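Q: Given only this backbone (175 positions), what sequence would you predict?
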């Protein structure tokens, strides 16, 4: 099965703000960025299309012609819990330092770790593999795309964020 994973376009959030699962707006450049994504998908047909329910993904899926994409909560970004919508350098939580040292296993306060994100993405992909699809599109987030690459054996979890797909970028997995 071919899986095309598309990251949402640029968000209208100041650099350094931890936004995770918060439903944030997109930059004014959305249409320009979305046209590039749409053009990259124009010669592909999909048996199924899935999306994170957060608007930054559903808006792109709809723009690209997939308004009937199936929403799945397992495709949401990493949950940063109490840190959401705070500047990383202004979070005064002792767990933040622990998280920076070991984000794979340490959870954000009232949020989740990368390991937990990976587990829910893996559950989604395990379920997807039971379907008879040949080609699937998934509109999701940077962390989800990293988790999927780890799942597919393309990157190691410890190196995941060094392989962050750019906004509007796409990766292809073969499962």
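A: Predicted residues:
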């Amino acid at each position: 099965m071919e899986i095309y994973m598309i990251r949402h376009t640029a968000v209208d959030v100041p650099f350094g703000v931890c936004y995770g699962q918060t439903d944030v707006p997109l930059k004014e450049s959305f249409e320009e960025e979305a046209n590039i994504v749409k053009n990259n998908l124009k010669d592909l047909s999909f048996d199924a299309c899935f999306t994170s329910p957060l608007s930054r993904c559903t808006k792109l899926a709809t723009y690209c012609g997939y308004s009937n994409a199936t929403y799945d909560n397992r495709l949401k970004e990493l949950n940063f819990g109490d840190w959401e919508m705070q500047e990383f350098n202004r979070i005064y939580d002792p767990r933040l330092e622990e998280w920076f040292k070991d984000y794979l296993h340490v959870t954000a306060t009232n949020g989740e770790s990368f390991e937990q994100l990976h587990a829910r993405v893996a559950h989604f992909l395990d379920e997807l593999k039971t379907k008879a699809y040949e080609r699937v599109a998934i509109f999701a987030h940077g962390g989800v795309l990293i988790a999927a690459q780890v799942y597919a054996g393309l990157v190691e979890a410890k190196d995941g964020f060094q392989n962050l797909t750019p906004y509007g970028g796409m990766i292809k997995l073969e499962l």
